[in-house]
Amino acid sequence: MINIAIDGYAGSGKGELSKGLAKKLNLKHLDTGAILRAMGLYFARLNIEDFTQAIIDKYIKTFEVKVVFEGDKQITLLNREDVSKEIRSEKMGGLASKLAIYPEAMEKMNNISREFAENFDCVIDGRNITSEVLPNADVKFFLDASVECRANRRLQDDYNRGVQTTYAEVLESLKKRDYRDTHREFSRMIVTHDSIVVDNTNMTIAQTIEHCYNLAVEKLKELGKI
Ligand code: DC
Q1: Domains of the chain, with CATH numbers?
Q2: Is 3 exposed, middle or buried (0-12, 13-18, 19+ CB in 10 A)?
Q3: Which ranges of the chain have pLDDT less than 70?
Q4: If exposure means fewest CB atoms within 10 Å of the residue's CB, which of 49, 66, 90, 160 is most exposed?
Q5: Which residue, by CA, sits nearest to atom 12 of ligand 1?
């Protein structure tokens, strides 16, 4: 099996990098943030946007999130409904990040991810992949970029999807998420000792993919996996 693990901050380009590496190395790609975002959407539809342990305990078993694939494309299902587009907003990212402090939510996501990695040669991206989901991954990347750069990227994504936001709102949301994702008690995002750190503030996504592809090939050859 080939497993590549990628963690990094919101807007660091993990998703694009994962897709690019998966394509070049003929691997499957799983976006784990989408699983938590789908959970966030479930709660948003119940008008619940702030969580407590009691709320999590009451609702965590009342919905199902699944991931299926149409070719390379990940389809994220919430109670069998395709919510792949609806979960892409920065608001759903914020709700996912708030849910991620609860081990019960992370366990759902971790189980789906580990099962995926057992069955496919794959790239998986998220926040706790290099540390918790795939601690024995063949190659690990930690992706970073300045928060201002990431806010501009997210603003452009929102604009492309027709979502009205301002730079200040996106910047504020990213800063809150960065803090939450790196300071929570369980499953917090860390840079593991064996991760390759890539800061792509001054790189295009194509350059990031090429750079990481070369490093991954080198490592996989060393391991005799390709
Ligand atoms: O990667 P993303 O922006 O889609 O993730 C949304 C939020 O979900 C992120 O701010 C933190 C949380 N998350 C996590 O804690 N662990 C993961 N493996 C993936 C996402």
Answers
A1: 3-220 (3.40.50.300)
A2: buried
A3: none
A4: 160
A5: 97
